[in-house]
Amino acid sequence: MQDKMTDPSSPSINVLLANPRGFCAGVVRAIEIVERALDLYGAPVYVRHEIVHNRHVVDRLRGKGAIFVDELDEIPPDAPTIFSAHGVPRSVQEAAIARGLPVLDATCPLVTKVHVQGRRYAKAGRTLVLIGHAGHAEVIGTMGQIDAPIHLVSTTDDVTALPLATDTPIAYITQTTLSVDDTRGVIAALNQRFDDVQGPDVADICYATQNRQTAVRDLARQSDVLIVVGARNSSNSSRLREIGDEMGVPSYLVDDGGGVDPAWFDGVATVGITAGASAPDELIESVIAAIASVRPVSVKQLDGVTEDVEFTLPPQLRNLTRAAAE
Known about the structure:
Order of helices and strands: EHEHEEHEHEHEHEHEHEHEEHEH
Shape: flat
Strand content: 15-25%
CATH class of the largest domain: Alpha Beta
Strand order of the largest sheet: 11-10-12-1-13
CATH architecture of the largest domain: 3-Layer(aba) Sandwich
Radius of gyration: 22 Å
Number of strands: 13
């Protein structure tokens, strides 16, 4: 961000905050698992891949003693091991058991729910279709959790190209960082092409993703510029920025206030700010501070859905915490 003194005589910028925004319950749970593990085991604890897709969160946990690795063979024998919120293939779970690593699984319960749904559909004899993005950590984990062939699609063209007969009984499951709106067209294409299609109720698609996308649409309607706080490797954050663009609002994805360009606000009256599900509040505050360094700001939070979802910690972590308190 360029250094620029605020001119008190400049017209103020209205900053609107989306509601909800930022951390979801799955992210809160995953971070708490790492922090509790550090308290109980002491540093270091090892985390396979980023616990969530945000470098600020990862760096903060690294500063407390978490060590992030790409593969299990980088973890010393008997070292406390944590799987990320995105989930892992069964092969990784089995490798950890074979090495005797004490594992805490921080997989989001909504991701686990997708795994369970997929296994149920496969057991019923249906051909599985996963709606998601190739290479995403969650997709890799889901495809490795189900002992059946899975066809990955992300667009309606992918549905057209599926090498399956129209009378094939199929079932679809979805990557949780996609919303009802993201998947609606693909699901419609599946129903149009195949005679026998089953899938989860729309209520089973991640509440946090849907809520944040609904909120950003409301925000974009009232904003001249949209700023999304989140990491570039965060699927849900990138999608929030894309929604702003689709609605005709200049939209930017930034890690923090350091990514803000003062030129974005020339002639602008209202700036909307939201954040992906793995972005903490302090990063939103840093963006507001960056805008305030250019022009005076007035901040207002929009009305929106109140999220009161909480996920319990893994039972072994709860047991260890209880034992430590006795």
